[in-house]
Design goal:
This is Copper amine oxidase-like N-terminal domain-containing protein. It is built from 4 helices and 20 strands. It has 278 residues and is mostly beta strands. It has an 8-stranded mixed beta sheet with strand order 1-13-14-2-3-20-17-18. β15 and β16 form a beta hairpin.
Length: 278
């Protein structure tokens, strides 16, 4: 099975844009100073799935650095995040290494070697969420690898993987709850949809609505209702909800847009997304 997964990953990386070091800035094609609400400027690709941050939690680019919501990202990769109420700052601990003193408006942080160093971009508080430059936060980690991965529709995603076979320590079993498992039958049919935006709105009477916008990443026209979408929405308490959809509603050419709506009982912190053709 591991051999099969490696084959899948090898096929997914159609155009390797750049192998970047942990301290190197991301430069996705649609980089902007603030990004649009819900726009997935650089969707993360972890364990053969896209990881998306909805609405106000969507990462954005500042001074050529990818700014990530610190709490949601910590949950995704299994890092430990602790809050110092006296200093009003966070400590990010990951696989035996840590960065402390992460605070809105403060450029420097204390790294695992005890030395204070600049992050390159000051962390920012936006709508109650702290965003930090993740490449700077992870630069001391010897166990994680970042890569930019391009595709045929000129979009870029950020691949996160462990170095030399290291498995990322997700703190929750969400990855095991993803309902879609790749088989030899779907080997050449996975991920025809590339996620570009994920918005989230409260629904009158309770719950939330997720609106996912995608582009056709397949080298052929997608027929009506020819694609299966499977998602896992994870809330701020770590509870998850499996979701499934069929689309698109009409035939869609390569790079053509489609949108999908899903209802969830609680506000999602992040969403794991996969798709495959029937």
């Amino acid at each position: 099975m591991n051999h099969f997964v490696h084959r899948v990953r090898a096929l997914l990386i159609l155009i390797l844009v750049a192998a970047i070091g942990a301290g190197t800035a991301f430069t996705p094609a649609r980089a902007s100073a603030a990004g649009n609400r819900g726009e997935q400027l650089l969707p993360l690709f972890i364990n053969d799935s896209y990881v998306l941050f909805p609405g106000k939690l969507a990462p954005y680019i500042k001074d050529n650095k990818l700014m990530m919501p610190i709490r949601a990202f910590s949950d995704v990769i299994g890092a430990k995040l602790t809050y110092n109420s006296t200093e009003k700052s966070y400590t990010f601990s990951f696989m035996g290494q840590s960065v402390s003193g992460l605070k809105a408006g403060v450029m420097n942080a204390v790294f695992d070697n005890g030395l204070e160093a600049p992050l390159g971009v000051k962390p920012e508080m936006k709508e109650g969420t702290l965003f930090v430059p993740m490449s700077s936060v992870l630069e001391t980690s010897k166990s994680i690898r970042w890569e930019n991965m391009g595709n045929r529709i000129n979009k870029v995603s950020g691949v996160i993987d462990g170095r030399r076979g290291v498995i990322l320590p997700q703190s929750t079993p969400v990855q095991l709850q993803v309902p879609f498992v790749y088989t030899t039958e779907t080997f050449n049919q996975f991920h025809p949809l590339f996620p570009v935006r994920l918005n989230q709105t409260a629904v009158t009477g309770g719950g939330y609505k997720l609106l996912l916008e995608t582009l056709n990443n397949a080298p052929f026209i997608l027929g009506k209702n020819s694609v299966v979408l499977e998602l896992v929405a994870v809330d701020f308490k770590g509870s998850s909800k499996a979701l499934k959809g069929i689309g698109p509603e009409v035939k869609t050419v390569t790079a053509g847009a489609s949108s999908f709506t899903f209802n969830v009982p609680t506000e999602a912190e992040y969403v794991i997304f996969r798709s495959h053709t029937k």
